[in-house]
Amino acid sequence: MKTWKKFAHVDAKTVDEAASILRAGNATLIGGGTDILGAMRFEVLPEYPEVVVNLKSIPGLDYIREEGGLLKIGALTRLEDIAKSDLVRAKYTALAEGAHRTATPHIREMGTISGNICQLTRCWYFRIPDNRFNCYRKGGKTCYAMMGDNRYHSIFGALNYCVAVNPSDTAPALVALNAKIKTSKRLIEAEQFWDMVVPGSTVLASDEIVTEIQIPAPSPGVKSSFIKFAIRKSIDFPIVNCAAMIGAGDARICLNAVYNKPYRATEAENAIKAKSINETNADDAGAAAVASATTLPGERNKWKIPIAKAMVKRAILACS
Amino acid sequence: MPEEQNNKSKNRANREGSGSISRRDFLKDAGLAVSVPAIGSVAATAETASAEAPASPETAAQSAPAKPSPDLTAIELTVNGGKYRFAVEPHWSLRQLLRDEIGFTSPKDWCGGLGACGSCTVIMNGRPVLSCLTLACECDGAVVETAEGIAKEKHPVIQAYINNNAFQCGYCTPGFVCTAKALLDRNQSPTEADVRDALGGNLCRCATYQRHPPAVMEAAKNLGPK
Fold this sequence. Notes:
The structure holds two protein chains of two kinds.
Chain A lengths: L7 E4 L3 H10 L2 E4 L5 H6 L9 E4 L9 E4 L2 E5 L4 H6 L1 H6 L1 H8 L4 H6 L2 H6 L25 H4 L22 H7 L3 E4 L3 E3 L20 E7 L6 E7 L10 E8 L2 E7 L6 E2 L1 H7 L6 H11 L14 H14 L3
Parallel strand pairs in A: 1-3, 2-3
Antiparallel strand pairs in A: 4-5, 5-8, 6-7, 6-8, 9-10, 10-11, 11-12
Helix pairs in contact in A: 5-9, 10-11, 11-12
Chain B lengths: L1 H14 L7 H8 L4 H14 L8 H7 L9 E7 L2 E7 L5 H9 L18 E4 L2 E4 L12 E3 L1 H6 L3 H8 L9 H14 L5 H7 L13 H10 L5
Parallel strand pairs in B: 1-5
Antiparallel strand pairs in B: 1-2, 3-4, 3-5
Helix pairs in contact in B: 7-10
């Protein structure tokens, strides 16, 4: 087994302390560690972190509670705890299901919700060991997937020249549920949280730390759902996943693993909003969602388009 | 065929001179023979409970440096009921600590540290976790249980795995056993769907998958009064 290169390890006591270590230089955060430790072991990142700052030593960041019409989830809450929570399962079904379909039981027992939304892309050119492809996401000037093997890549084009996809299963659920993400500096709408930056996948500043997820309680009669297509039922990252929240004359539908960030399917939302949920309408909404989808050179990712359509359709039907 | 192999190894030993290592010793040293005792210990533990770690808790505590250097973190953890004190480097994994320092060799490496196979599963503070993706220095105060400990306490899951023949080569079995035991600790009467869901992160290259759910269901039945 490849072992890690040396690094220093600090147990942070407060969020401010962790942020100050991040400001001091080449440091990275560790929560569950399932993403960052893999990336470090295979030296995926252009810069190997000198300091790893442990967030698990900060007390009071692991909770699920309802407060003032909001569901509040602490940044260090394990995915399995969210998936098993009766409260989340009953009222925020899309998030419970998204957390439950993430990776494997072991990774859900270790991985945190904040780590899941901040995880790096799984693009195989980005993830290749020893940082062998200096792509746009690493500050380079080439996207190797664009002309290479892009069978799992974006069907809605590039963002800042990068055609990788966001692999999170909880991210589309948070967008569909209209969540807000509280950080050490501000409150960010879930929809605005992701971006293509070097080398991360969020709009967070280099010393900004997610502290809480806030989700407004859905009004009565509103239902949410999450559906995922992957090669295997367990373990695998999504080929396409979709979360929807429909009811009370409104609809929010979000696809993921189809674009550089979670893709809000506004066309599908408009198509289903005022209509009743049935097979035909859901099918139309699915078609609307992928109306603007395109393939990448070589058309290797063409197969994802009908899957995305079916995912939207099934997510809508699950909200009936 | 076995004779031929024996002859071959004899020849080789002769060639290398009487004072040199035998092929068997070489394999042992190279760590290739690790999977053999693993099968043996899992299969035999129903009777013999041979879960003693090569490094006993006391000696490990003595061997830990009194004053750790700035690079080292002093940790104290409980593994299979024994208390261990270690000074660990930040880049050590829990798997490395358990195998190389303490001597519990049941957490296996298969996927190379990607978190994709579940072979290195141990139970830490009641959760089944991947020891290859856990930093040893973050395990201070942790209570860890490996397949050796599960065998030692004669947990019904071990006998159920033997009865159902739920392994072939046995390499992935410690991971499966840990995952199954963690499930049974939380849920004493799981449905088959629960079992399949819980074991979803363990890979078996011999593909004995269909044997695992009945084995875990049998273990749940034999757990005794609930």
